[in-house]
């Protein structure tokens, strides 16, 4: 409980009147005393009435888990024990700093036989993975006579587990992209692809004559063609750098979370295409290694492993991390490396170790491009600070381009994507790799 702005204004006015009257009319002090007693009695009466009529029952609802980058609705239901609810109630949550509280939405406030009931919803923006708690709820509403602000604290004791975002998997978007590979088909626009025999079909107009199987056509006395499909059972290793640079915020979320979301989507897509999927993470030293399993079987295990991946503050040791990975792999694999760099100097060791891996494996290097750099390159203003930022942004983009070109010359497929387009771009590159038999 605390005095409202109305009570503070009344006290200030009464104090001014008391000072003025005491200076000019000293014989009316009893009137001033009565005025202060009346104000105190009015305040006490307002407190008693508000306490008796302001009791309410609350219920809380919070989903047990949510996806990073999404919002979770924290719902508060209020029912009065007697009379009706206050007209205006302010709500504030005491929760973990990783849960960013949005604006309050009142879902309903309808009258029934017992009085008024109200339900409000607060959007919690999930910015990081982990287990986070909503500890307390603070309510504030004005008293009956508007002289006091009643403040109540309620224990909530709810928790939410923030998991990596697998909404593209649940929505079927990944399945739609991977459908041609799942059906065993190849992209007919690219000739000579597919090294694994799929089936024989009767020749029809429009088919490539070079696909005709002349020996079987002679036996069957009709033209038949050989249908080929991309080879399955390749080994795909999702390699995530969890060092300091990947813990930086980019477009509201960390680069590490963006990489994990894309890696899980890739795992699901590779499972639909019939490949084996493994997982590896490293920072200053090797961390987790999950051997390659069939994609659909590997997905729940990788989801659990990625949910527990920590945000590290140490610099990444690419030499130790990639050398350890090279020693764990016994067959040619498609390795998708999610990492980042600052400039060409810090990227030298990374390039050298990726070059060693590229001799025996097919490498896809994935980096996240900051969309703000493009805005800084061409500033709207021509101030000195804007020009300095533009020069720095151009230098950063130039060095990133130089590193990507150097990796491309080593036979590495580079993907420098924006955070929003990362998942779809990665799946598109995977489909291209499978269709062209690049593994």
UniProtKB/TrEMBL annotation:
Ranges that cross the membrane = 7-25, 31-49
Keyword Transmembrane helix among UniProt keywords: yes
Record's Gene3D superfamilies? von Willebrand factor, type A domain (3.40.50.410)
Q: Which SUPFAM superfamilies match?
A: vWA-like (SSF53300)
Q: Which UniProt keywords apply?
A: Membrane, Transmembrane, Transmembrane helix
Any one Pfam family here would be DUF58
Query: In what residue span(s) does the DUF58 domain sit?
Result: 200-372
- Spell out the PANTHER family in the cross-references: BLL2464 PROTEIN, SLR2013 PROTEIN
- In Swiss-Prot or TrEMBL terms, this protein is called DUF58 domain-containing protein
Name the lineage: Bacteria, Pseudomonadati, Pseudomonadota, Alphaproteobacteria, Hyphomicrobiales
């Amino acid at each position: 409980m605390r005095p409202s702005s109305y009570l503070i204004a009344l006290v200030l006015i009464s104090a001014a009147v008391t000072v003025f009257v005491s200076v000019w009319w000293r014989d009316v002090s009893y009137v001033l005393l009565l005025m202060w007693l009346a104000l105190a009695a009015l305040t006490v009466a307002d407190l008693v009435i508000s306490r008796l009529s302001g009791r309410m029952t609350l219920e809380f609802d919070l989903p047990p888990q949510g996806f990073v980058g999404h919002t979770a609705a924290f719902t508060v239901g209020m029912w009065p024990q007697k009379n009706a609810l206050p007209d205006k109630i302010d709500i504030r949550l005491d929760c973990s700093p990783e849960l960013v509280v949005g604006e309050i939405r009142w879902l309903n406030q309808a009258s029934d036989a017992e009085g008024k009931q109200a339900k409000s919803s607060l959007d919690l923006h999930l910015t990081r993975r982990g287990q986070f708690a909503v500890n307390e709820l603070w309510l504030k509403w004005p008293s009956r006579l508007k002289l006091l602000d009643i403040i109540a604290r309620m224990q909530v004791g709810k928790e939410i587990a923030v998991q990596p975002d697998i909404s593209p998997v649940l929505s079927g978007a990944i399945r739609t992209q991977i459908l041609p590979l799942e059906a065993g088909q190849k992209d007919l626009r690219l000739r000579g692809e597919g090294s694994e025999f799929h089936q024989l079909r009767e020749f029809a107009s429009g088919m490539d004559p070079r696909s005709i199987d002349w020996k079987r056509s002679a036996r069957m006395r009709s033209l038949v063609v050989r249908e080929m499909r991309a080879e399955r059972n390749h080994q795909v290793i999702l390699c995530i750098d969890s060092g300091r640079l990947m813990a930086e915020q980019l477009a509201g979320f960390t680069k590490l979370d963006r990489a994990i979301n894309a890696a899980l989507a890739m795992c699901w897509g590779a499972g639909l295409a019939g490949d084996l999927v493994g997982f590896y993470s490293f920072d200053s030293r090797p961390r987790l290694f999950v051997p390659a399993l069939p994609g659909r079987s590997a997905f729940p295990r990788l989801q659990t492993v990625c949910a527990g991946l920590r945000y590290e503050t140490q610099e990444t040791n690419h030499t130790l991390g990639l050398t350890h990975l090279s020693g764990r792999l016994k067959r040619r694999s498609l390795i998708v490396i999610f990492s980042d760099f600052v400039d060409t100097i810090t990227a030298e060791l990374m390039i050298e170790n990726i070059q060693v891996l590229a001799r025996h494996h097919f490498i896809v290097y994935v980096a996240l491009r900051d969309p703000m750099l493009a805005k800084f390159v061409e500033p709207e203003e021509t101030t000195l600070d804007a020009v300095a930022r533009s020069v720095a942004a151009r230098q950063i983009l130039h060095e990133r381009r130089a590193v990507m070109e150097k990796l491309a010359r080593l036979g590495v497929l580079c993907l420098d994507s924006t955070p929003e387009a990362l998942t779809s771009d990665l799946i598109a590159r995977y489909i291209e790799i499978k269709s062209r038999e690049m593994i």
